[in-house]
Amino acid sequence: MSVSSGTARRAIGCAVLALGLAAVPAAAAEVIELTQTGCQFLEPEGMDHGFKTSRKADCEAINAKSGDGRVAAAKVITLNPGKYVFRVANRNVPYVLGFWLREKGYNWLNPIHKATKLSVSGGGIATGTSRDYEVDLAPGEYVFSCPLNTTPDYKLVVTGD
């Protein structure tokens, strides 16, 4: 007995559906926009302080004086667990920036942390450009910053399901 290709395709399709194996499109990652200006991220601070910087050392000095107080007053970003794209923009900082998101307490020198804790980073964000960083966040506490623009460590909390 021969089976037409259309009949065979329908039979396979029914079997896949019966087994619950139908292809389900993956949920799109939510985009979180973050903007860097001199020595800070705008979104958690809620304003541009207008810090002038031409090099990393400028931000180190500025944030040594005001970083702790600004972080204490900054908005904590709260998210649900899931997939995210952090789109980080360089707004008028005259040098290349980066982004570093990691679990609170992460120590890049600790080999156990490298194997067990989340850390996502990268550079190459030139003036007037942005870059995307994809991550799947589990419940917990995180911090993010820019080591190249020497921003403070801003807080991010992922709540449980």
Question: What key attributes describe this structure?
Answer:
161 residues; Immunoglobulin-like; globular
Kindly describe this structure.
- This protein has 161 residues and is α+β, with helices and mostly antiparallel strands.
- The protein has a single domain (27-158), classed as Sandwich (Immunoglobulin-like).
- The chain contains four helices and nine strands, in the order αββααβββαββββ.
- It has helices at residues 5-18, 42-45, 56-73, 111-116, and strands spanning 30-37, 40-41, 77-79, 82-90, 97-103, 119-125, 130-137, 140-145, 154-158.
- The chain is globular.
What percentage of residues falls in helices of 4 or more residues?
25-40%
Largest sheet: 5 strands, mixed
Spans with pLDDT under 50 lasting ≥5 residues? 1-9, 11-22
- CATH superfamily heading: Cupredoxins -  blue copper proteins
For this entry, what is the oligomeric state of its chains? single chain
Q: Structural class given helices, strands, pairing?
A: alpha+beta
CATH class: Mainly Beta
Give the radius of gyration.
22 Å
Q: End-to-end span in angstroms?
A: 53 Å
**E-strand count:** 9
CATH topology: Immunoglobulin-like
The overall pLDDT average reads: 87
Shape estimate? globular
Number of domains: 1
**Beta-strand percentage range:** 25-35%
How are the strands of the biggest sheet laid out side by side? Answer: 3-9-8-5-6
